[in-house]
Design a protein that fits this description.
Number of strands of chain A: 11
Radius of gyration of chain A: 18 Å
Largest interface: A-B, 19 and 16 residues
CATH topology of chain A: Pectate Lyase C-like
Largest sheet of chain A: 11 strands, mixed
Number of helices of chain B: 9
Structural class of chain A: mainly beta
CATH architecture of chain A: 3 Solenoid
Helix content of chain B: 25-40%
Order of helices and strands of chain B: EHHEEHEEHEEHEEEHHHEEEEHEE
Number of helices of chain A: 2
Strand content of chain B: 25-35%
Order of helices and strands of chain A: EHEEEEEEEEEHE
Distance between the termini of chain B: 26 Å
Shape of chain B: globular
Helix content of chain A: under 10%
CATH superfamily of the largest domain in chain B: Aminohydrolase, N-terminal nucleophile (Ntn) domain
Strand order of the largest sheet of chain A: 1-2-3-4-5-6-7-8-9-11-10
Shape of chain A: elongated
Radius of gyration of chain B: 18 Å
Strand order of the largest sheet of chain B: 7-2-8-1-14-13-15
Oligomer: heterodimer
CATH superfamily of chain A: Glutamate synthase, alpha subunit, C-terminal domain
CATH topology of the largest domain in chain B: Glutamine Phosphoribosylpyrophosphate, subunit 1, domain 1
Number of domains of chain A: 1
Number of strands of chain B: 16
CATH class of the largest domain in chain B: Alpha Beta
Number of domains of chain B: 2
Chain lengths: 224, 302
Protein backbone atom coordinates (compact mmCIF):
# COMPACT_ATOMS: atom_id res chain seq x y z
CA UNK A 1 0.00 0.00 0.00
CA UNK A 2 1.47 3.31 -1.09
CA UNK A 3 -0.02 6.76 -1.44
CA UNK A 4 1.11 9.79 -3.35
CA UNK A 5 -0.26 13.29 -2.88
CA UNK A 6 0.66 15.10 -6.08
CA UNK A 7 0.34 18.44 -4.29
CA UNK A 8 3.61 17.40 -2.58
CA UNK A 9 5.02 14.38 -4.46
CA UNK A 10 6.21 14.61 -8.05
CA UNK A 11 4.68 12.60 -10.88
CA UNK A 12 8.12 11.10 -11.41
CA UNK A 13 8.17 9.70 -7.85
CA UNK A 14 4.81 8.06 -8.45
CA UNK A 15 5.76 6.61 -11.83
CA UNK A 16 9.08 5.33 -10.55
CA UNK A 17 7.19 3.40 -7.89
CA UNK A 18 4.93 1.91 -10.57
CA UNK A 19 7.97 0.82 -12.58
CA UNK A 20 9.16 -1.29 -9.65
CA UNK A 21 8.62 -5.04 -9.57
CA UNK A 22 6.65 -5.15 -6.31
CA UNK A 23 2.94 -5.19 -7.03
CA UNK A 24 1.13 -2.71 -4.89
CA UNK A 25 -2.09 -0.92 -4.14
CA UNK A 26 -1.44 2.76 -4.87
CA UNK A 27 -3.61 5.78 -4.09
CA UNK A 28 -3.01 9.10 -5.84
CA UNK A 29 -4.57 12.33 -4.55
CA UNK A 30 -4.64 15.88 -5.93
CA UNK A 31 -3.61 15.08 -9.51
CA UNK A 32 -4.70 18.64 -10.45
CA UNK A 33 -4.69 17.95 -14.19
CA UNK A 34 -1.01 17.01 -14.22
CA UNK A 35 0.39 15.19 -17.24
CA UNK A 36 1.69 11.61 -17.43
CA UNK A 37 0.16 10.39 -14.18
CA UNK A 38 0.67 6.62 -13.72
CA UNK A 39 2.52 6.17 -17.00
CA UNK A 40 4.47 3.03 -17.85
CA UNK A 41 3.35 0.72 -15.03
CA UNK A 42 4.99 -2.67 -15.55
CA UNK A 43 3.18 -4.89 -13.07
CA UNK A 44 -0.30 -5.64 -11.73
CA UNK A 45 -0.55 -2.58 -9.47
CA UNK A 46 -3.99 -1.41 -8.38
CA UNK A 47 -3.86 2.36 -8.89
CA UNK A 48 -6.66 4.66 -7.79
CA UNK A 49 -6.44 8.34 -8.78
CA UNK A 50 -8.79 10.78 -7.05
CA UNK A 51 -9.37 13.81 -9.29
CA UNK A 52 -8.95 14.98 -12.87
CA UNK A 53 -5.77 14.10 -14.78
CA UNK A 54 -4.07 15.84 -17.73
CA UNK A 55 -2.40 14.39 -20.82
CA UNK A 56 -1.29 10.76 -21.28
CA UNK A 57 -2.56 9.23 -18.03
CA UNK A 58 -1.83 5.47 -17.86
CA UNK A 59 0.10 5.56 -21.13
CA UNK A 60 2.01 2.38 -22.05
CA UNK A 61 0.30 0.62 -19.17
CA UNK A 62 1.12 -3.07 -18.78
CA UNK A 63 -0.91 -5.27 -16.41
CA UNK A 64 -1.85 -2.54 -13.93
CA UNK A 65 -5.41 -1.58 -13.15
CA UNK A 66 -5.78 2.22 -13.13
CA UNK A 67 -8.98 3.90 -11.94
CA UNK A 68 -9.42 7.65 -12.43
CA UNK A 69 -12.16 9.06 -10.24
CA UNK A 70 -12.59 12.10 -12.46
CA UNK A 71 -11.97 13.20 -16.03
CA UNK A 72 -8.92 12.44 -18.19
CA UNK A 73 -7.17 14.76 -20.66
CA UNK A 74 -5.88 13.89 -24.13
CA UNK A 75 -4.05 10.62 -24.80
CA UNK A 76 -5.45 8.46 -21.98
CA UNK A 77 -3.96 4.92 -22.06
CA UNK A 78 -2.03 5.71 -25.21
CA UNK A 79 -0.19 2.61 -26.42
CA UNK A 80 -1.46 0.53 -23.51
CA UNK A 81 -0.23 -3.07 -23.69
CA UNK A 82 -2.46 -4.85 -21.16
CA UNK A 83 -4.31 -4.28 -17.90
CA UNK A 84 -7.33 -2.12 -17.31
CA UNK A 85 -8.00 1.63 -17.26
CA UNK A 86 -11.31 2.95 -15.93
CA UNK A 87 -12.32 6.63 -16.00
CA UNK A 88 -15.46 7.56 -14.06
CA UNK A 89 -15.82 10.87 -15.91
CA UNK A 90 -15.09 11.68 -19.54
CA UNK A 91 -11.91 11.34 -21.61
CA UNK A 92 -10.52 13.88 -24.06
CA UNK A 93 -9.04 13.34 -27.53
CA UNK A 94 -7.33 10.19 -28.85
CA UNK A 95 -8.13 7.98 -25.89
CA UNK A 96 -6.43 4.54 -26.18
CA UNK A 97 -4.61 5.58 -29.36
CA UNK A 98 -2.41 2.78 -30.77
CA UNK A 99 -3.15 0.62 -27.72
CA UNK A 100 -2.24 -3.04 -28.14
CA UNK A 101 -4.25 -4.78 -25.43
CA UNK A 102 -6.18 -4.58 -22.20
CA UNK A 103 -9.52 -2.90 -21.50
CA UNK A 104 -10.34 0.83 -21.32
CA UNK A 105 -13.68 1.79 -19.79
CA UNK A 106 -15.02 5.35 -19.95
CA UNK A 107 -18.16 5.99 -17.89
CA UNK A 108 -18.81 9.36 -19.57
CA UNK A 109 -17.99 10.45 -23.12
CA UNK A 110 -14.77 10.11 -25.10
CA UNK A 111 -14.13 12.97 -27.52
CA UNK A 112 -12.59 12.95 -30.98
CA UNK A 113 -10.26 10.26 -32.35
CA UNK A 114 -11.12 7.66 -29.67
CA UNK A 115 -9.24 4.45 -30.49
CA UNK A 116 -7.30 5.97 -33.37
CA UNK A 117 -4.96 3.32 -34.81
CA UNK A 118 -5.94 0.85 -32.06
CA UNK A 119 -3.99 -2.37 -32.31
CA UNK A 120 -5.83 -4.87 -30.13
CA UNK A 121 -7.23 -2.94 -27.16
CA UNK A 122 -10.86 -3.22 -26.13
CA UNK A 123 -12.61 0.10 -25.42
CA UNK A 124 -16.04 0.46 -23.84
CA UNK A 125 -17.51 3.98 -23.75
CA UNK A 126 -20.74 4.27 -21.79
CA UNK A 127 -21.48 7.68 -23.34
CA UNK A 128 -20.67 8.93 -26.84
CA UNK A 129 -17.51 9.31 -28.92
CA UNK A 130 -16.44 12.27 -31.09
CA UNK A 131 -15.44 12.55 -34.73
CA UNK A 132 -12.80 10.38 -36.44
CA UNK A 133 -13.02 7.65 -33.81
CA UNK A 134 -11.37 4.32 -34.69
CA UNK A 135 -9.51 6.01 -37.56
CA UNK A 136 -7.20 3.39 -39.13
CA UNK A 137 -8.17 0.98 -36.34
CA UNK A 138 -6.26 -2.23 -36.91
CA UNK A 139 -7.64 -4.73 -34.44
CA UNK A 140 -9.48 -4.83 -31.12
CA UNK A 141 -13.04 -3.81 -30.27
CA UNK A 142 -14.68 -0.41 -29.65
CA UNK A 143 -18.07 -0.39 -27.94
CA UNK A 144 -20.06 2.87 -27.82
CA UNK A 145 -23.25 2.83 -25.75
CA UNK A 146 -24.19 6.35 -26.94
CA UNK A 147 -23.62 7.98 -30.33
CA UNK A 148 -20.59 8.24 -32.63
CA UNK A 149 -19.47 11.45 -34.39
CA UNK A 150 -18.43 12.10 -37.97
CA UNK A 151 -16.32 9.65 -40.01
CA UNK A 152 -16.42 6.65 -37.68
CA UNK A 153 -13.88 3.99 -38.62
CA UNK A 154 -12.29 5.88 -41.51
CA UNK A 155 -9.73 3.66 -43.29
CA UNK A 156 -10.41 0.89 -40.78
CA UNK A 157 -8.63 -2.48 -40.94
CA UNK A 158 -9.85 -5.40 -38.83
CA UNK A 159 -11.11 -3.70 -35.64
CA UNK A 160 -14.76 -4.33 -34.74
CA UNK A 161 -17.02 -1.45 -33.78
CA UNK A 162 -20.31 -1.72 -31.89
CA UNK A 163 -22.50 1.40 -31.59
CA UNK A 164 -25.83 1.54 -29.75
CA UNK A 165 -26.93 5.04 -30.79
CA UNK A 166 -26.67 6.98 -34.01
CA UNK A 167 -23.55 7.30 -36.15
CA UNK A 168 -23.20 10.79 -37.63
CA UNK A 169 -21.37 9.37 -40.63
CA UNK A 170 -19.15 6.41 -41.52
CA UNK A 171 -15.61 7.07 -42.75
CA UNK A 172 -14.12 5.74 -45.97
CA UNK A 173 -14.25 1.93 -46.23
CA UNK A 174 -16.30 1.47 -43.04
CA UNK A 175 -19.67 -0.26 -43.34
CA UNK A 176 -22.41 -1.75 -41.21
CA UNK A 177 -22.11 -5.51 -40.79
CA UNK A 178 -24.44 -8.27 -39.67
CA UNK A 179 -24.66 -8.99 -35.93
CA UNK A 180 -24.37 -12.75 -35.76
CA UNK A 181 -24.60 -14.85 -32.60
CA UNK A 182 -20.85 -14.82 -32.03
CA UNK A 183 -20.79 -11.02 -32.19
CA UNK A 184 -23.63 -10.73 -29.70
CA UNK A 185 -21.78 -13.04 -27.36
CA UNK A 186 -18.51 -11.12 -27.74
CA UNK A 187 -20.34 -7.83 -27.13
CA UNK A 188 -22.11 -9.22 -24.07
CA UNK A 189 -18.76 -10.34 -22.66
CA UNK A 190 -17.33 -6.85 -23.18
CA UNK A 191 -20.34 -5.16 -21.56
CA UNK A 192 -20.05 -7.53 -18.61
CA UNK A 193 -16.32 -6.90 -18.28
CA UNK A 194 -16.97 -3.14 -18.29
CA UNK A 195 -19.82 -3.41 -15.80
CA UNK A 196 -22.43 -2.02 -18.20
CA UNK A 197 -25.94 -2.98 -17.17
CA UNK A 198 -29.40 -2.18 -18.46
CA UNK A 199 -28.57 -2.30 -22.16
CA UNK A 200 -29.24 -5.15 -24.54
CA UNK A 201 -26.82 -6.36 -27.21
CA UNK A 202 -29.81 -6.29 -29.59
CA UNK A 203 -29.72 -2.48 -29.44
CA UNK A 204 -26.26 -2.31 -31.05
CA UNK A 205 -25.15 -2.26 -34.65
CA UNK A 206 -21.81 -3.61 -35.78
CA UNK A 207 -19.42 -1.80 -38.11
CA UNK A 208 -16.19 -2.89 -39.72
CA UNK A 209 -14.06 -2.73 -42.82
CA UNK A 210 -15.50 -3.09 -46.31
CA UNK A 211 -11.92 -4.15 -47.22
CA UNK A 212 -11.96 -2.17 -50.46
CA UNK A 213 -9.02 0.09 -49.69
CA UNK A 214 -6.51 -2.49 -48.38
CA UNK A 215 -4.61 -2.57 -51.65
CA UNK A 216 -4.18 0.47 -53.81
CA UNK A 217 -6.48 0.41 -56.79
CA UNK A 218 -6.46 3.40 -59.10
CA UNK A 219 -10.24 3.22 -59.42
CA UNK A 220 -10.53 3.92 -55.68
CA UNK A 221 -8.10 6.87 -55.68
CA UNK A 222 -10.81 9.37 -54.79
CA UNK A 223 -11.86 7.35 -51.72
CA UNK A 224 -8.57 7.60 -49.86
CA UNK B 1 1.67 25.50 -29.25
CA UNK B 2 0.20 28.27 -27.07
CA UNK B 3 -1.80 28.43 -23.88
CA UNK B 4 -5.12 30.17 -23.34
CA UNK B 5 -6.95 30.93 -20.12
CA UNK B 6 -10.23 32.73 -19.55
CA UNK B 7 -12.08 33.53 -16.36
CA UNK B 8 -15.52 35.03 -15.86
CA UNK B 9 -16.43 35.95 -12.28
CA UNK B 10 -19.87 35.12 -10.97
CA UNK B 11 -19.21 36.29 -7.41
CA UNK B 12 -17.68 39.35 -5.72
CA UNK B 13 -15.08 37.07 -4.16
CA UNK B 14 -13.72 36.18 -7.61
CA UNK B 15 -14.12 39.73 -8.99
CA UNK B 16 -11.97 41.07 -6.13
CA UNK B 17 -9.21 38.55 -6.78
CA UNK B 18 -9.56 38.18 -10.56
CA UNK B 19 -5.93 39.02 -11.40
CA UNK B 20 -4.54 36.67 -8.76
CA UNK B 21 -6.51 33.74 -10.20
CA UNK B 22 -5.68 34.63 -13.80
CA UNK B 23 -1.98 34.83 -12.85
CA UNK B 24 -2.09 31.38 -11.25
CA UNK B 25 -3.82 29.95 -14.32
CA UNK B 26 -1.36 31.64 -16.66
CA UNK B 27 1.63 30.19 -14.79
CA UNK B 28 0.30 26.68 -15.49
CA UNK B 29 0.35 27.50 -19.20
CA UNK B 30 4.02 28.65 -19.18
CA UNK B 31 5.27 25.44 -20.79
CA UNK B 32 2.79 25.86 -23.63
CA UNK B 33 4.05 29.39 -24.31
CA UNK B 34 7.34 30.63 -22.82
CA UNK B 35 7.95 33.33 -25.48
CA UNK B 36 5.47 36.00 -24.45
CA UNK B 37 2.39 36.55 -22.35
CA UNK B 38 -0.55 38.90 -22.31
CA UNK B 39 -3.93 39.49 -20.75
CA UNK B 40 -7.12 41.46 -21.28
CA UNK B 41 -8.89 42.52 -18.09
CA UNK B 42 -12.39 43.91 -18.02
CA UNK B 43 -13.55 46.19 -15.22
CA UNK B 44 -15.84 49.19 -15.00
CA UNK B 45 -14.17 52.62 -15.05
CA UNK B 46 -15.36 55.71 -13.20
CA UNK B 47 -14.77 57.55 -16.49
CA UNK B 48 -16.48 57.02 -19.85
CA UNK B 49 -13.59 55.31 -21.58
CA UNK B 50 -10.27 53.53 -21.17
CA UNK B 51 -7.48 53.55 -23.74
CA UNK B 52 -4.39 51.41 -23.04
CA UNK B 53 -1.13 52.40 -24.72
CA UNK B 54 2.37 50.91 -24.60
CA UNK B 55 5.94 51.86 -25.38
CA UNK B 56 9.20 50.19 -24.36
CA UNK B 57 10.80 53.56 -23.49
CA UNK B 58 9.49 54.97 -20.17
CA UNK B 59 10.34 58.50 -21.37
CA UNK B 60 7.82 58.18 -24.21
CA UNK B 61 5.13 56.98 -21.79
CA UNK B 62 5.98 59.91 -19.50
CA UNK B 63 5.54 62.31 -22.43
CA UNK B 64 2.12 60.79 -23.17
CA UNK B 65 1.10 61.19 -19.53
CA UNK B 66 2.20 64.83 -19.57
CA UNK B 67 0.26 65.64 -22.71
CA UNK B 68 -2.86 63.83 -21.40
CA UNK B 69 -2.75 66.10 -18.34
CA UNK B 70 -2.32 69.23 -20.48
CA UNK B 71 -4.89 68.49 -23.14
CA UNK B 72 -7.43 66.38 -21.19
CA UNK B 73 -7.48 67.89 -17.70
CA UNK B 74 -10.26 65.60 -16.41
CA UNK B 75 -8.48 62.43 -17.49
CA UNK B 76 -6.65 60.06 -15.15
CA UNK B 77 -3.84 57.65 -15.91
CA UNK B 78 -2.63 54.36 -14.42
CA UNK B 79 0.82 52.92 -15.03
CA UNK B 80 1.44 49.18 -15.29
CA UNK B 81 4.96 48.23 -16.43
CA UNK B 82 5.41 49.57 -19.99
CA UNK B 83 1.67 50.30 -20.34
CA UNK B 84 -0.42 53.35 -19.54
CA UNK B 85 -4.21 53.28 -19.14
CA UNK B 86 -5.93 56.60 -19.89
CA UNK B 87 -9.35 57.02 -18.25
CA UNK B 88 -11.29 59.93 -19.72
CA UNK B 89 -14.80 61.21 -20.33
CA UNK B 90 -14.22 61.33 -24.06
CA UNK B 91 -15.53 58.48 -26.16
CA UNK B 92 -13.05 55.61 -26.61
CA UNK B 93 -12.98 56.35 -30.37
CA UNK B 94 -12.08 60.01 -29.77
CA UNK B 95 -9.39 59.16 -27.23
CA UNK B 96 -7.86 56.47 -29.44
CA UNK B 97 -7.83 58.89 -32.39
CA UNK B 98 -6.18 61.55 -30.23
CA UNK B 99 -3.43 59.13 -29.11
CA UNK B 100 -2.75 57.93 -32.64
CA UNK B 101 -2.48 61.51 -33.95
CA UNK B 102 -0.60 63.07 -31.05
CA UNK B 103 1.67 60.14 -30.18
CA UNK B 104 2.14 57.99 -33.29
CA UNK B 105 5.10 56.19 -31.73
CA UNK B 106 3.08 54.41 -29.02
CA UNK B 107 1.12 51.23 -29.55
CA UNK B 108 -2.60 51.40 -28.83
CA UNK B 109 -3.28 48.08 -27.10
CA UNK B 110 -7.01 48.50 -26.51
CA UNK B 111 -9.85 50.98 -26.33
CA UNK B 112 -13.30 50.74 -24.82
CA UNK B 113 -15.37 51.25 -21.71
CA UNK B 114 -13.97 48.32 -19.74
CA UNK B 115 -11.07 46.61 -21.48
CA UNK B 116 -7.37 46.94 -20.59
CA UNK B 117 -4.85 44.87 -22.59
CA UNK B 118 -1.33 44.21 -21.27
CA UNK B 119 1.20 42.10 -23.13
CA UNK B 120 4.94 41.74 -23.46
CA UNK B 121 7.53 39.38 -24.86
CA UNK B 122 9.29 37.33 -22.21
CA UNK B 123 8.42 34.51 -19.84
CA UNK B 124 4.90 34.39 -18.39
CA UNK B 125 6.34 34.32 -14.85
CA UNK B 126 7.96 37.73 -15.49
CA UNK B 127 4.71 39.03 -16.92
CA UNK B 128 2.71 37.92 -13.88
CA UNK B 129 5.12 39.61 -11.44
CA UNK B 130 6.11 42.71 -13.47
CA UNK B 131 2.49 43.52 -14.23
CA UNK B 132 1.37 42.81 -10.62
CA UNK B 133 -1.56 40.77 -11.84
CA UNK B 134 -2.42 39.86 -8.25
CA UNK B 135 -3.64 43.43 -7.68
CA UNK B 136 -6.06 43.54 -10.62
CA UNK B 137 -9.80 43.28 -10.01
CA UNK B 138 -12.56 43.00 -12.57
CA UNK B 139 -15.47 41.08 -14.02
CA UNK B 140 -13.62 38.82 -16.47
CA UNK B 141 -10.33 38.28 -18.24
CA UNK B 142 -8.60 36.40 -21.03
CA UNK B 143 -4.89 35.64 -21.07
CA UNK B 144 -2.42 33.92 -23.35
CA UNK B 145 1.05 32.41 -23.36
CA UNK B 146 2.74 32.23 -26.75
CA UNK B 147 5.09 29.70 -28.28
CA UNK B 148 5.91 31.39 -31.59
CA UNK B 149 5.72 29.09 -34.61
CA UNK B 150 5.20 31.29 -37.65
CA UNK B 151 6.32 34.87 -36.96
CA UNK B 152 8.71 36.87 -34.77
CA UNK B 153 8.75 37.11 -30.99
CA UNK B 154 7.93 40.74 -30.18
CA UNK B 155 5.45 42.54 -27.98
CA UNK B 156 3.40 43.44 -31.08
CA UNK B 157 3.20 39.78 -32.09
CA UNK B 158 1.89 38.85 -28.63
CA UNK B 159 -1.72 38.16 -27.73
CA UNK B 160 -4.40 39.38 -27.01
CA UNK B 161 -5.10 41.30 -30.22
CA UNK B 162 -7.69 44.07 -30.05
CA UNK B 163 -10.57 43.51 -32.47
CA UNK B 164 -12.44 46.74 -31.80
CA UNK B 165 -13.91 48.56 -28.84
CA UNK B 166 -13.92 46.30 -25.76
CA UNK B 167 -13.11 43.30 -27.95
CA UNK B 168 -10.03 41.11 -28.18
CA UNK B 169 -8.92 37.73 -29.43
CA UNK B 170 -6.44 35.08 -28.29
CA UNK B 171 -5.53 32.11 -30.45
CA UNK B 172 -3.93 28.70 -30.10
CA UNK B 173 -3.18 27.20 -33.49
CA UNK B 174 -2.05 28.32 -36.91
CA UNK B 175 -3.88 29.72 -39.91
CA UNK B 176 -2.89 28.78 -43.44
CA UNK B 177 -4.72 31.40 -45.50
CA UNK B 178 -3.70 34.47 -43.50
CA UNK B 179 -1.53 36.18 -46.14
CA UNK B 180 -4.25 36.37 -48.77
CA UNK B 181 -6.83 37.33 -46.16
CA UNK B 182 -4.59 40.06 -44.72
CA UNK B 183 -4.26 41.68 -48.15
CA UNK B 184 -8.01 41.59 -48.64
CA UNK B 185 -8.73 43.04 -45.19
CA UNK B 186 -6.03 45.71 -45.55
CA UNK B 187 -7.68 46.79 -48.80
CA UNK B 188 -10.93 47.04 -46.88
CA UNK B 189 -9.26 49.42 -44.43
CA UNK B 190 -8.32 47.09 -41.53
CA UNK B 191 -5.08 48.15 -39.82
CA UNK B 192 -2.35 45.49 -39.29
CA UNK B 193 0.85 45.95 -37.33
CA UNK B 194 2.54 42.57 -37.87
CA UNK B 195 2.79 39.56 -40.20
CA UNK B 196 1.22 37.38 -37.50
CA UNK B 197 -1.55 34.94 -38.47
CA UNK B 198 -3.60 35.46 -35.30
CA UNK B 199 -3.72 39.21 -35.93
CA UNK B 200 -5.47 38.38 -39.22
CA UNK B 201 -8.14 36.43 -37.34
CA UNK B 202 -8.57 39.47 -35.08
CA UNK B 203 -8.68 41.78 -38.11
CA UNK B 204 -11.24 39.51 -39.76
CA UNK B 205 -13.56 39.78 -36.74
CA UNK B 206 -13.02 43.56 -36.58
CA UNK B 207 -14.04 43.78 -40.25
CA UNK B 208 -17.14 41.57 -39.89
CA UNK B 209 -18.28 43.42 -36.77
CA UNK B 210 -17.78 46.79 -38.48
CA UNK B 211 -20.11 45.52 -41.23
CA UNK B 212 -22.82 45.06 -38.63
CA UNK B 213 -22.43 41.36 -37.78
CA UNK B 214 -23.18 40.22 -34.25
CA UNK B 215 -20.26 38.41 -32.60
CA UNK B 216 -22.05 35.12 -33.20
CA UNK B 217 -22.53 35.94 -36.90
CA UNK B 218 -18.90 37.01 -37.23
CA UNK B 219 -17.69 33.75 -35.67
CA UNK B 220 -19.98 31.66 -37.84
CA UNK B 221 -18.47 33.41 -40.88
CA UNK B 222 -14.96 32.81 -39.47
CA UNK B 223 -15.57 29.04 -39.53
CA UNK B 224 -16.15 29.40 -43.26
CA UNK B 225 -13.39 31.89 -44.13
CA UNK B 226 -10.47 31.00 -41.84
CA UNK B 227 -8.49 27.96 -42.92
CA UNK B 228 -6.31 26.32 -40.31
CA UNK B 229 -6.20 25.13 -36.74
CA UNK B 230 -7.60 27.19 -33.95
CA UNK B 231 -9.03 27.43 -30.53
CA UNK B 232 -10.12 31.06 -30.20
CA UNK B 233 -11.23 32.87 -27.08
CA UNK B 234 -12.85 36.25 -27.74
CA UNK B 235 -13.22 38.80 -24.96
CA UNK B 236 -16.32 41.00 -25.09
CA UNK B 237 -17.52 43.89 -22.93
CA UNK B 238 -19.74 41.55 -20.91
CA UNK B 239 -18.13 38.14 -21.18
CA UNK B 240 -16.27 35.90 -23.55
CA UNK B 241 -16.77 33.43 -26.38
CA UNK B 242 -14.93 30.24 -27.34
CA UNK B 243 -14.67 28.62 -30.76
CA UNK B 244 -12.70 25.59 -32.01
CA UNK B 245 -12.15 24.71 -35.66
CA UNK B 246 -14.09 21.75 -37.13
CA UNK B 247 -11.13 19.34 -36.87
CA UNK B 248 -10.52 20.41 -33.23
CA UNK B 249 -6.92 19.25 -32.78
CA UNK B 250 -6.15 22.20 -30.50
CA UNK B 251 -7.28 21.54 -26.96
CA UNK B 252 -9.86 23.42 -24.90
CA UNK B 253 -11.58 22.76 -21.59
CA UNK B 254 -14.52 24.63 -20.09
CA UNK B 255 -15.63 24.53 -16.48
CA UNK B 256 -18.10 26.28 -14.25
CA UNK B 257 -19.12 26.60 -10.63
CA UNK B 258 -21.48 29.03 -8.88
CA UNK B 259 -18.45 31.34 -8.47
CA UNK B 260 -16.95 31.34 -11.97
CA UNK B 261 -16.86 30.16 -15.57
CA UNK B 262 -13.41 29.27 -16.86
CA UNK B 263 -11.79 28.08 -20.06
CA UNK B 264 -8.29 26.94 -20.72
CA UNK B 265 -6.12 24.90 -23.06
CA UNK B 266 -5.65 22.41 -20.24
CA UNK B 267 -7.46 21.49 -17.04
CA UNK B 268 -4.36 22.07 -14.90
CA UNK B 269 -4.91 25.84 -15.25
CA UNK B 270 -8.53 25.50 -14.12
CA UNK B 271 -7.38 23.29 -11.22
CA UNK B 272 -5.87 26.44 -9.66
CA UNK B 273 -9.31 27.96 -9.06
CA UNK B 274 -11.18 27.62 -5.76
CA UNK B 275 -13.73 24.81 -5.95
CA UNK B 276 -12.31 23.39 -9.20
CA UNK B 277 -12.50 19.84 -7.84
CA UNK B 278 -16.31 20.10 -7.77
CA UNK B 279 -16.73 22.11 -10.98
CA UNK B 280 -18.72 20.92 -13.97
CA UNK B 281 -15.99 20.27 -16.56
CA UNK B 282 -16.48 19.60 -20.26
CA UNK B 283 -14.78 19.85 -23.63
CA UNK B 284 -16.24 22.31 -26.16
CA UNK B 285 -17.45 20.60 -29.34
CA UNK B 286 -15.84 21.40 -32.72
CA UNK B 287 -17.19 24.34 -34.75
CA UNK B 288 -19.63 25.30 -32.01
CA UNK B 289 -19.80 28.84 -30.61
CA UNK B 290 -19.93 29.11 -26.82
CA UNK B 291 -20.65 32.48 -25.17
CA UNK B 292 -21.03 33.88 -21.69
CA UNK B 293 -22.57 37.33 -21.75
CA UNK B 294 -24.50 39.87 -19.90
CA UNK B 295 -25.59 38.66 -16.51
CA UNK B 296 -23.82 37.39 -13.45
CA UNK B 297 -26.19 34.43 -13.26
CA UNK B 298 -24.09 33.30 -16.20
CA UNK B 299 -26.00 32.15 -19.22
CA UNK B 300 -24.10 29.30 -20.79
CA UNK B 301 -25.31 29.38 -24.36
CA UNK B 302 -24.17 27.03 -27.07
Amino acid sequence: MASFDLADNTVRELNKHLHGAVTDKVTVDNPGGKHSVAVGATDAHQVEINGNVGYYCAGMNAEASVVVNGHAGPGLAENMMSGRVHVTGSASQYCAATAHGGLVVIDGDASSRCGISMKGVDIVVKGSVGHMSAFMAQTGRLVVCGDAGDALGDSIYEAQLYVRGTVESLGADCEEKAMRAEHKQALQDLLDAAGVTGVSVDEFKRYGSARKLYHFNIDNASSY
Amino acid sequence: MCGIVGLYARSDRIRKSLGKHVGAMLMQMSERGPDSAGAAFYSPSSAASKVTVQHDDPAVIEAVEKSVKQEHPGAKVNHRASHLVIHSDNTPQAMEAWVRTSHPAVRVMSAGERIEIYKEKGHPADFVSNYTLDQITGSHALAHTRMATESAITTSHSHPFSTGLDLCLVHNGSLSNHNRLRMKLANAGVRFETDNDSEVAAGYLTWRLSKGDSLRQALAAAIRDLDGFYTFAIGTRDGFAVLRDPVACKPAVLAETDDWVAMSSEYRAIAQLPGAENARVWEPAPAKIYTWEGNTAGEVAA
